[in-house]
Here is the input.
Amino acid sequence: MSGWESHLPALQVIAPMILAPVVMMLAGRGVAWGVTTLVSAYAFFNAISLAAGALAGRTFTYKLGSWEPPHGIELHVDALSAVLLLVITGASTLALIAAERSISAQIEVDRQPLFYAAWLLALAGLSGIVVTGDAFNIFVFMEIASLASYILIAGGPDRRALPAVFKYLIIGTIGATFYLIGVGLIYLMTGTLNIADIVQRLPLAADQNSVLAAVGFITVGLALKAAVFPLHVWLPNAYTYAPHMVTVFLAACSTKVQLYVLIRMDFIAFQPNLADHALQFAQFLMPLAALGIVVGSAVAIFEQNLKRLFAFSSIAQIGYILLGASLVSETGLISSIVHMFNHALAKGTLFLAAAGLAMHFSSLTLSDLAGAAKRMPWTLAAMVAAGLSLIGIPGTAGFVSKWYLLSAVLERGGLGYALAALIVISSLMAVIYIWRIVETAYFGEPGTDTATVREAPSILLAATWVGALANVYFGLQPHVPATLAASAAQLLMGSTP
Here is the structure.
């Protein structure tokens, strides 16, 4: 491994964290945006390098201060980490490339350096959660990402974001506190915070009630942070009232990072060491996943606000990810990990298209978007392409992950047939709420106040189409996410009995 490659895990966190205060001091229109975009693009380039190494079967480690773990802090990137790094840095970079006009319209020029500094801290925090091999540092990076996200969501002109972010803050704090209590109990029983070392020492204390309590605290805390049904109440308003580009970024990756922690901790540390825990994991989370899929899709059908509709759709998609993991099988884990990647593509593109519409429509209520496709045909075409991926139409990325999920549930036999029917029904429900958008935008009669409406700014439109074409490309060529997901699933299942 070359000298540069050996530092890649650390650079994923250090570069945005160090440059955040620098960005905060930059003045001039567009300067802070330009520097932030370059930093994010650099992180994305690093993530691609790490993913290429993971595809070749390599694992990257970095010992901070050259201290050997478990006494020193270790950064660790494997196939599972590589998928999430691609999602985080890719979503951040594409959103930032498209962001300049949209952010300028929503945030005053003198506040933009502070806003972009918070963006880099959110990027550093989310990346840090994924690369650290230390259970306590997951909490540290979780708080960095959360505090920065609160600032980003509340930074727009819509004052309804303030109660939304307050609810997010309260629930997020409870979730983080539960996680920290669980980690503290684990430390009490094992004397270590290094995840790999916890795996080695946990068997000696596996029969202790403190360990069982720790597992409960960690699972519930991460479920709160990941907006798992019915702990999702913070998510719809946070996505709806945040600045549009913040929604693009957070909807693509924020909850998936929390699910990543839940899956990694459970499959690597808990299931191999706690009797019958795999069964308990499935029995606890599978019903919540199924309910999330049904309720999220059902509410989306009746929503009138475009961003809120997509937010409730995200609750259903979180259900798909959790359902695959709750099967506790290699195919189920592959479906979960692939869907983390594919849903980020679809939902990021949908919110980019919504940001394009918001540049010319004062409201994103469906009735106000009547006939929008006549004025903004390219924007709506990209939205439809991403919507087809969300449904799971063959030839799109969404179809690939749903195919894996259907294959995984059918392996279960009797119960699997019921779950397969649930997946098909929920996909039909997605057809309904995507069709509502198509019907309104393409067949509705535009109002007289839309006569001057034109396409979204060119750079925003281009970014939206990059996302739309990526949904098609990875539907036809799913090799990269599927191979990484298969390697990650083998690693996780290799840790289970």
Q: What stands out?
A: Residues 277-491 form one domain.
